[in-house]
Write a structure and sequence with these properties.
The strands form five sheets. Strands 9, 11, 12, 13, 14, 16, 17, 18 and 19 form a nine-stranded antiparallel beta sheet that branches. Strands 1-2-6-3-7-21 form a six-stranded mixed beta sheet, with helices on one face. A four-stranded antiparallel beta sheet has the order 4-5-23-22. Helix 1 packs across helix 3 and helix 5 packs across helix 7. Helices cover 29% and strands 26% of the residues. The chain has two domains: 261 residues, Aminopeptidase (3-Layer(aba) Sandwich); 210 residues, Alpha-Beta Plaits (2-Layer Sandwich), CATH 3.30.70. The relative contact order is 0.18. The chain is elongated and about 85 Å long. It has eleven helices and 23 strands.
Length: 485
Amino acid sequence: MREDSFNSLTPKKVWHFFSEICQIPRPSKHEKAIIAYLESFAKQRGLDYLVDKGGNIIIYKKATLGYENKPVIVLQSHVDMVCEKNADTTHDFFSEPINAYVEDGWVKAQGTTLGADNGIGVAMQLALLDDIDIQHAALECIFTVDEETGLTGASTLEASAINGRTMINLDSEDEGIIFIGCAGGVETIGYCTPEYSNVPDNCAAFVLTVSGLQGGHSGDDINKGRGNAIKILTRLLYQFQKHASFYMSDISGGNLHNAIPREAKSSFVIEKSKTTVFVKETNDLIKHILDENKDNEPNLQIQVKETLLPEKVYTKDFSARLICTLYALPHGVVAMSNTIPGLVETSTNLAFVRHTTDGRIEIGTSQRSALQTAKYDISQQVASVFILGSMEYVHTMGYPGWKPNKNSRILKHAEGVYQKMFGKEPVITAIHAGLECALFVDKIPGLDVISVGPTIKGAHSPDERLSIESVEKFWKYLIEILETW
C-alpha cells in the first residue's frame, strides 16, 4: 500500500497508520514484526507500554485535561490477519507487504486478503494514541496476537495489566451495528492414514477442480447460501466412485478453520474404455450443479481435465471411506436463534482437507453456537461421522460465548451518541462468530463491553474490502463516544 495513493482519504492519521500496517507481514502466530513496530511507536511518543507473556502489547495514554476522573476506557483490536490468496496469485505473506489499492469507494488488495480485519482497528487505536487534540479519559489500548487461529492472545492476556472496566472492541465489520454478544466455538479435526495400491493397467488420469466460489467467514457468512468447494467436490466424487474402474489418488481443499472453502481439487484414474461415458455423465452433473448455484455463486467453475498418471492410487475401500466421510460431514446452519431474529444460533463448517507432512490426511471442521450445550452437541455429531469413517478425531479447547447485556453502560452511551449524531438508532445485536470479548469478560470481573467497527466485506477471503466512507463516519463516532464519556 503506497502512502501517496491514499493522500486524499480522510481521516489522514487513520489511513497513514493503516498504510504502515500493510507494509508489515503479520500472519497469525508470526506477529513479532508488528509488535516491534508498536513498541517503537510507544517509545517514540513516551507512552507507557507492556508486552505480556502471551506476546500481546498494551499501550497506556493518560487522560486529557478535565477527563482525569472519568472511568478508564479500554480499546482493543488484534494485530494478526487471515492470509488467503487466489490460486493464481504469487504472494508471500511472511515477507511481502499487502498490495492495497483504492477502487470505487473501497480499499482492496491485489489477489489477497486485505487485513482490514483487524488492521483498521489497530490503525484507529494508533491514531488516537498519536493525537494530542482529541479529549478522552485514560486509555488502555490492547493489541492482541493470534486471534484468527485460536484467540490465544486473548486467552493469555494478563488481566492484572488492565485497570479499566469499560471496553470498546474494534473488531466488528458493520458500521451502524453495535454487537453485544457472540457465539462460542470449537474445532473438530479428523485424521486418517491413506491406504495405497498400484495404478491399474489401461487407465487414464484426470484432475477435478472446483474454484471461483465466494468463500467468506465461517461465522458471519455461513447463512448466506455460499457454496463449499469441498462439499461440491465430494458430491461429484461420490458419483464417480460408482464406476468400478474409478481410483482416487489425491484430494485437497480449503485452508483455514474459520473460512468457507473457496477451492478444492482431486486427482483420480479411470479405465480408458470407460472414459467416454464417464466424461458425458460428469458434464451432465456439472451442468446441474452450476445451474443450482447460478444465483448464489455465479463465478463457480468446475473443470475435469486429463493429466499424467500418478505413481500410486488409494485403495478402493479407503477411497470410498474417505469420500463418504467428507460427503456425510454436515456444513452450514444447524439452528437459528429464538431470541434475536435473523441470528444464526448454531452452525458447522467443513473447512479443509489436506495431506500432512507425516503422511496422514487431515480434515478440519469448526462448530459455533451461542449455547454451550448446542456447541457440544454439533461437535459430537461431527465426531460421530469420523467414527463411522473409522477415523481418529480431536476436539480443540474451544472458546466461550459472550452473553448479551442490554443494560450495559457503554452500550447505552454509544447508542445515545449514534442517535444524536446520525438521527437514527443503531442496530443492537449479537454475532455468530468468535470475538475476543468473550474471553475478556470471562477473565476480567465486571468488564462492560461493546464491539463496533467500520464496514468490511468479504473478510477472510481475497475479496476483502474496506469501505472508505464508513471509516470516516466511524472515526467521528468513536471520537464522540470518547469525548462525551
